[in-house]
């Protein structure tokens, strides 16, 4: 009788052990060992106001499908352009909530009393009656996973056309995959708008997606902006 009771007690104890282990595992954080790529992507999402539940969905989509909508090209559901002292920024929002952020650097106004009031190190601007030149200004774009950038010098002639004088210094970076060094060319040197773009090729680490991202600069007689394209 005593032997039977001891056997039952041992069986009950053994049955409890996996339940305790399961409870401990269930309470473990899902991202206990967050990858460097994920940490960097979440930081970018935080910077641009993407909330954590949406971050989770987009990262899961990226890891299982190889991309989210902002990486695939196509038409955004919402586009917003804003201007600050630092840049002209275009934010495109896609159906799954992913975003693409492109910018054209703006020159800062120098302190009064300097020799050239609108000239700074880096991006500079000069002009006269009805025209302006922007020199050495950075154009860049990122959807969090893929980033492209280049430098440009261009002119705007009021009521007439835009003119791209030169583009150079293209660069690229990627998370969750690899990207080729981008090509860069001027499509329309003079026009309304004049246009130039950088193009690259991205391959996800899991091999599920290849993308052909493009960063465009458009310069018209009255404005200039950047935008994304490709597929």
Strand content: 35-45%
The helical percent reads 10-25%
What is the straight-line distance between the termini?
75 Å
CATH class reads Mainly Beta
General form: elongated
Largest sheet: 8 strands, antiparallel
Number of domains: 1
N-to-C SSE string, H for helix and E for strand: HHHEEEEEEEEEEEEEEE
Write the CATH fold name. Answer: Immunoglobulin-like
Task: Quickly count the helices.
Answer: 3
Average pLDDT taken over every residue: 83
Radius of gyration: 26 Å
SS class: alpha+beta
Unreliable stretches, pLDDT < 50, 5 or more residues? 7-32, 110-121
How many extended strands? 15
Query: In the CATH hierarchy, what is the architecture at level 2?
Result: Sandwich
Strand and helix map with partners:
Blueprint: H1 2-26, H2 36-47, H3 52-65, E1 78-83, E2 87-93, E3 99-105, E4 124-128, E5 131-142, E6 146-157, E7 161-174, E8 177-179, E9 183-188, E10 190-191, E11 194-199, E12 202-204, E13 210-211, E14 213-219, E15 224-230
Antiparallel strand pairs: 1-2, 2-3, 3-5, 4-5, 5-6, 6-7, 7-10, 8-12, 9-11, 11-14, 12-13, 14-15
């Amino acid at each position: 009788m005593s032997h039977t009771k001891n056997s039952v007690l041992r069986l009950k104890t053994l049955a409890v052990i996996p339940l305790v282990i399961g409870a401990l595992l269930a309470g473990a954080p899902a991202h206990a060992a967050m990858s460097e790529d994920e940490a960097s992507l979440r930081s970018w999402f935080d910077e641009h106001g993407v909330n954590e539940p949406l971050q989770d969905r987009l990262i899961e989509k990226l890891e299982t499908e190889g991309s989210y909508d902002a990486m695939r090209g196509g038409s955004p559901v919402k586009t917003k352009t804003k201007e600050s002292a630092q840049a002209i920024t275009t934010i495109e929002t896609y159906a799954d909530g992913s975003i693409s952020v492109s910018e054209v650097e703006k020159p800062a106004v120098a302190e009064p009393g300097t020799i050239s009031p609108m000239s700074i190190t880096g991006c500079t601007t000069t002009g006269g009656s009805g025209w302006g030149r922007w020199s050495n200004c950075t154009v860049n774009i990122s959807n969090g996973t893929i980033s492209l950038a280049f430098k440009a010098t261009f002119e705007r002639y009021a009521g007439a056309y835009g003119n791209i004088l030169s583009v150079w210094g293209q660069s690229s970076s990627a998370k969750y995959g690899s990207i080729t060094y981008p090509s860069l060319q001027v499509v329309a040197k003079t026009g309304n708008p004049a246009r130039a773009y950088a193009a690259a090729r991205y391959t996800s680490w899991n091999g599920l997606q290849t993308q052909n991202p493009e960063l465009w600069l458009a310069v018209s007689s009255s404005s200039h902006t950047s935008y994304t394209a490709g597929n």
